[in-house]
Amino acid sequence: MDYVDSLLDLIGNTPLVRLNKSTRGAPGTILAKVEYFNPGGSVKDRIATRMVEAAEQEGLLEPGGTIVEPTSGNTGVGLAMVAQQKGYHCIFVCPDKVSEDKRNVLKAYGADVVVCPTAVPPEHPDSYYSVSDRLVAETDGAWKPDQYSNPNNPRSHYETTGPELWEQTEGRITHFVAGIGTGGTVSGTGKYLKDKSDGRVQIVGADPHGSVYSGGTGRPYLVEGVGEDFWPQTYDRDICDRIIEISDKESFLTTRQLAREEAMLIGGSGGMAVAAAVRLAEDLQDPDAVIVVLLPDGGRGYLTKVFDDEWLGRYGFLPSDQERPVGEVLRRKDGSLP
Ligand code: PMP
Questions:
Q1: Is 44 a known active-site residue?
Q2: Helix (H) or strand (E) holding 17
Q3: Are 144 and 68 a contacting pair, CB within 8 Å?
Q4: At 184, which helix (H) or strand (E)?
Q5: Which of 110, 240, 266, 272 is the most exposed place for a label (fewest CB within 10 A)?
Q6: 180: Cβ below 6 Å to ligand 1?
Q7: Distance between CA atoms of 162 and 145, rounded to whole angstroms?
Q8: What is the pLDDT of residues 269-296, one digit of tens each?
Q9: Taking the complete model, does pTM exceed 0.90, yes or no?
Q10: Closest C-alpha residue for ligand 1 atom 4
Q11: pLDDT for 159-172, tens place per residue?
């Protein structure tokens, strides 16, 4: 019989898929590491399992303990899944701007979600940072993974994502492109690939316009999961040979193209990374380049944003007339719907 003992055995070993039409004819090969194949639907399953196992080994998390983390996104899903399988309780703390759908995903795995007001400064007692610290202090057996400072975040990529890419490309990878949020993915994977290739593999960070990694001040941008307004400990500031800055508009239009041209329904940070990978290929003009770009998650969680014409139009991000939004194209000349 062919089966695994637990869903956790399916984390990692995600496929590499060649991008075809969306490379715009740039020379070289662009391969996508498709992380939505992880059982929790994102790259964050890798860090969730590694951070929890390390905490168990270090005695920070004991049987029946509680995981407390201020997150509402992919890391929450990864932690909730690992906690369910290992018998831990989870409390996630998130600001009230987080959609009810996202909170319900966490609850569906059996986690508790505490919602805090968005409109208060971080030092306020009701801020989600303060509340999560208080919950850790007041809950017996509580442990906070803190993905922004936990060395097991980049380590999980040094131990899994990096070796997978080296093997999958038979050592022929020349460039690795990834968005930077906590920096765990680019730092851990990048370090492994540098070590393995004696520094030959080039590491390229993709960053939203306005984020600190590309010299910004933290100015607001819309793409989720990447870019920061501070420098997290999990980011190795020496790892990137180059940082490519991508606008919200280009990130979102590329994300939509991936669905229509490669049948890959992905999140906006993946579109941002692909836009950077294509720009890199255009700059290199090297037919032997093997560029790997990491796609962190799937697009289902963004249907009412990136894939919604009205939402995109509100920010002036709609593509040119030839690529009019679906609703428009389907309309008859008199404006009625067929
Ligand atoms: N994209 C998405 C959707 C994410 O949730 C994250 C994690 N914050 C990233 C990209 C960036 O990954 P990392 O934190 O490893 O830099």
A1: yes
A2: strand 16-18
A3: yes
A4: helix 184-196
A5: 110
A6: yes
A7: 22
A8: 999 999 999 999 999 999 999 999 999 9
A9: yes
A10: 225
A11: 999 999 999 999 99
